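Morning, I've got a small favour to ask if you have a moment. Here's the protein in full, and shout if anything looks odd to you:
***
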Amino acid sequence: MNSADVVGRALAAGLTVATAESLTAGQVAASLADVPGASGMLKGGVIAYSNDIKVQALGVEPALLAEAGSVDAAVARQMAEGARILMHADLAVSTTGVAGPEPHDGKSVGTVFVAVASASGTRVAEFLFDGDRGQIREQSCSAALELLMGGLSMGTKDPPG
């Protein structure tokens, strides 16, 4: 998926986007910001690499993290929903997963969850990518952009929260 396509669609629809990134550590926001005109649609992002930031900045439930770990569909959902509210964005995309080299929270290397939250709901997708750490992070960024592009068709201007 091309970042320019995502930015173009968001601008054409008059929609704003926020990011909440763990696994990708800002790659999604950076790829959007690389596109001229992105300032008209990109509200900002949170790099929530540690669980305490997931809780404090994005409102992820501590009990969920304690029970499921950080690599979980419900965590991805809460991250996206929290970023959308925090940044007053029409849509937010989140990433969480295991880039390796070792498994994490009982999840295999390459396990990734991406979520997109909008006023009409939140969609979460699970992926199992192959490759080294850099390749898994790059594939995760591409998956986030693709899911975000799909979310732009269901995004609305309703206020977050």
Observations:
- The CA atoms of residues 77 and 136 lie 20 Å apart.
- The chain is about 40% helix and 20% strand.
- Residues 133-152 form the longest helix (20 residues).
- The chain has a mean pLDDT of 95.
